[in-house]
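HUMAN: Can I see a protein plus its fold?

ASSISTANT:
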Amino acid sequence: MRSSRPLRKVLTAYSSKPPIVEYLKKAFAARGVEAEGFYADENHWFDRLVIRHVNKACHNLRVLPKDKGFFDAHPLSHLNYRSGRLAKKVKAFAPDMVLLIRGIRIKEDALKEIGKNAALLGWWIEREERMEEAFAEINFFDHYFFMNSSCVEEAKKRGFNNVSLLRHAVDTRAFMPLVRKTRYDWSFVGGWSPKRQRFIEKAQEVSGNGAIYGPKWRKKNFFNMAVSRLVKGGYIEGEPLTKLYNESKVVLNVTNWGPGKDRTGLNMRVLEVPACKAFLLTDGSRDIEAVVTPGVHLGLYEGEEEFASKLAYYLKNGKEREAIAEAGYKHVSSNYTYGHVAGILTDKYNEAIRR
């Protein structure tokens, strides 16, 4: 039975990384709302050790199409297992509202069951190329948010009325200015890709005093000493990540989502770096100027040559760089916190219970 009372209990479902679940738990707690999390990426050992390896072998041998699996109907396969666990968690916790952050898919029968017992909100934070997945499930939700303006526009064209835009946010208790002791001219955080390799090689040519964190960089640069010596580690989060941003003159953002004018949405780095009062040099998207002002709150580049020239420029012009970082910090920390997100979610919950 769905609640019609003021919001008192919230369940947020998402993967464990990045820790958006924890950020929202703190934001709701500050509003006096009891909040718990559900980690949808926690799979059963049978799925990790048996199902995944059997399916991978069959896909590699072309015994099975890439979009099929031998264990699709098994209760311990990842989709069935997490969907069942989420339904049980909702029953045990009895939240007034469930926020399902996508990415990770939940089965339709589980969504239907959850919607009978709680207001169900969705938040799509994946790339817009996958928007058809979202459109297939919108009608199971009381309201569905997208971080990409293009997804909202397309959803409304198709007749969906329960959709709106919700940007990423930043936890200013996790990402904050520290006593600045600059260690690197530039830093980059993110997994390896051919595109990112080209940009990092440009950055290395501008300054060899850089730091790279992320998977596959060492493997892909085993014979490229100029880059491999800059690789400091793999996945980085929490306090070490905040410390890295504070130690960098310039933090680089090179997304894998396509050319800026051809895509919408923003990743979390656009907010997290300025929240540390650090300078961000990023590629763009059609949405970026609705959130921050290039040249005022951060640096923006288009293409490899402009990337290199702007990196060199901002390394040389420290006063201008620091003024932009200061303005970015004030803007982001005042307008894009998880406290703001919790307020928007609460408003949509109130609309849902009035229907």
Q: What stands out?
A: The chain has two domains: 9-169+337-354, 184-335. The first helix runs from residue 20 to 29. The mean pLDDT is 91.
